[in-house]
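Work Package 4 report. The design task specified in the project plan requires that, given a folded chain encoded as structure tokens, an amino acid be chosen for each position. We show below one input record used in the internal validation round.
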């Protein structure tokens, strides 16, 4: 809730209308947060930086007596759980200070590769969290070799000297207005490479590690969400299964471009699929055999081109040039094939999964997404010629679920009821309940049964088949068609609830939660000890881990072994 409030405050700040005191021609930084197509603040504005940024690393390496050492250090031990629960501070600033910090940070090596829109969504939360501090002349801001330094600094007023092993670097190596130093402290807990002392009274903005990590986590999550949004708005990729979509997203990379850049040339072999994220592009110099030249095609955010790269690799029929600065998500054909496989087959899997989800007994079983994907992989395609009998009433047949994909067939039931299916249909659903009806299953039990109807192909047909024998490899076929009833599985101790558990100490903290040592006093006065695992529901949903957590609970609930920790109970506090 605290994190959501923080972002609400940032959004409110982003939508405020403020008049810039700098110039009528320079809009307020806060206004520009919501205008992603405008240019960055003008370089000739009154608060223009003096000497650039991030000079400390270069200065440290410029010493005549020392070579610049390679930075090798342990990364910060900051868990996702602690970052998620952290609320960054907000320090009010004037428009002049905000514009100054924007210019300083965007020149830092950590942010120089971000697109303009990413600049707005990433840098401004950091600017909000930067604290303005004052140092007197002669104060030491950073001590060489110190390991407890948790800040990155940007000089606003004044200057500083850089000292390495007691030697003051030359005047050309001094730090002044707009210089940024200490960035590695945000990434690593490494000893400081140099001492930084003030030459006069100095005003400095500083950013702490946790606020930086908080902004980075939000940036990564929003970047993944943006990828998913762009991919799902491409019709032929929206048909992929959730599993294949995640794989395709992992193959997407962001590329920035400048106005006038030629992104693809006419006749060039297509091996990249482009989804425009920011800016405008045009496809030009198109030709047809009938009418000669075609008008240019202008592409806006969300539009795409190069889809032949994922299918045939046929050369592009025109040139693609950037009308404005912007960015696009790229999917390389080879990476896509490695991750997802053949596009047509992937789309077929997506359609098959949708059909599988529509089957009554599958829907009632409430399978996890990964379980459905595993079942889809077991489905096999088969063809029948016109007049072929797929199964005959009263005769032994393999228990299986059938999906009609193309063609027509006739079903005649035991009541001599006739049903015609065309192009898309499902039959054989009840045959998958063979194990559930007889109350036992196993790899050696027969899966043949008497057919309850006759199915004949009236045209050449294509079907997909999911056999009961294969289902046994993935699911408990005894429970097929029934939702799991945890109350009958969990060793629920009604005397154990959240209200009578006392936290003693934290046993551990990981990426997805915490484990606490807790105790409960029984009615006989004895103290019982338990381990309590705590997870944030919002975090699980955001990371698409909710189903995994539920599966973990369900599996642990079924264990009766002295070698596996017994699940006593599970709770929700909201």
């Amino acid at each position: 809730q605290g994190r959501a409030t923080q972002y609400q405050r940032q959004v409110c700040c982003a939508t405020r209308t403020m008049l810039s005191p700098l110039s009528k021609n320079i809009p307020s930084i806060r206004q520009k947060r919501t205008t992603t197509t405008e240019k960055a603040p003008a370089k000739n504005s009154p608060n223009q930086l003096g000497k650039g940024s991030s000079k400390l690393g270069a200065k440290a390496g410029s010493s005549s007596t020392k070579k610049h050492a390679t930075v090798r250090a342990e990364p910060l031990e900051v868990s996702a759980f602690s970052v998620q629960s952290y609320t960054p501070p907000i320090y009010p600033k004037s428009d002049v200070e905000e514009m100054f910090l924007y210019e300083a940070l965007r020149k830092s090596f950590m942010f120089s590769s971000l697109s303009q829109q990413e600049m707005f969504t990433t840098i401004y939360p950091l600017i909000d969290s930067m604290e303005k501090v004052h140092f007197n002349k002669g104060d030491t801001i950073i001590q060489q070799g110190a390991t407890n330094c948790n800040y990155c600094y940007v000089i606003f007023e004044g200057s500083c000297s850089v000292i390495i092993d007691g030697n003051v670097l030359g005047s050309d190596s001094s730090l002044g207005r707009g210089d940024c130093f200490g960035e590695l402290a945000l990434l690593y807990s490494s000893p400081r490479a140099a001492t930084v002392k003030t030459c006069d009274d100095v005003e400095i903005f500083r950013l702490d590690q946790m606020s930086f990590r908080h902004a980075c986590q939000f940036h990564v999550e929003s970047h993944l969400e943006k990828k998913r949004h762009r991919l799902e708005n491409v019709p032929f990729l929206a048909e992929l299964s959730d599993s294949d979509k995640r794989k395709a997203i992992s193959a997407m990379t962001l590329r920035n471009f400048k106005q006038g850049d030629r992104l693809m040339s006419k006749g060039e072999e297509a091996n990249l699929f482009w989804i425009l994220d920011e800016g405008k592009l045009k496809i030009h110099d198109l030709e047809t055999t009938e009418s000669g030249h075609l008008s240019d095609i202008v592409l806006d955010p969300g539009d795409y081109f190069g889809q032949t790269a994922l299918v045939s690799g046929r050369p592009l029929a025109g040139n693609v040039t950037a009308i404005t600065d912007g960015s696009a998500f790229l999917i390389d054909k080879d990476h896509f094939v490695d991750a997802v496989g053949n596009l047509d087959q992937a789309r077929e899997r997506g359609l098959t999964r949708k059909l599988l989800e529509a089957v009554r007994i599958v829907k009632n079983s409430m399978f996890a997404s990964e379980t459905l994907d595993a079942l889809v992989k077991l489905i096999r395609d088969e063809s029948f010629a016109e007049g072929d009998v797929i199964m005959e009433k009263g005769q032994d047949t393999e228990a299986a679920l059938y999906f009609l994909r193309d063609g027509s067939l006739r079903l005649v039931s035991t009541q001599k009821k006739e049903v015609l299916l065309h192009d898309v249909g499902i039959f054989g659903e009840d045959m998958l309940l063979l194990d559930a009806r007889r109350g036992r299953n196993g790899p050696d039990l027969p899966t043949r049964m008497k057919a309850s109807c006759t199915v004949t192909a009236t045209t050449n047909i294509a079907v997909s088949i999911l056999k009961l024998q294969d289902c046994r490899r993935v699911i408990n076929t005894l429970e097929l068609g029934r939702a799991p009833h945890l109350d009958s599985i969990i060793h629920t101790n009604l005397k154990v609830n959240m209200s009578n558990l006392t936290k003693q100490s934290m046993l551990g903290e990981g990426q997805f939660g915490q484990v606490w040592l807790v105790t409960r006093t029984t009615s006989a006065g004895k103290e019982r000890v338990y381990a309590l695992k705590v997870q944030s529901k919002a975090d699980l949903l955001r990371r698409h881990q909710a189903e995994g957590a539920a599966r973990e609970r369900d599996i642990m609930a079924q264990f009766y072994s002295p070698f596996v920790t017994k699940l006593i109970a599970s709770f929700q506090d909201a």
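DSSP finds 18 helices and 31 strands in the chain. Validation will be extended to a larger panel in the next phase.
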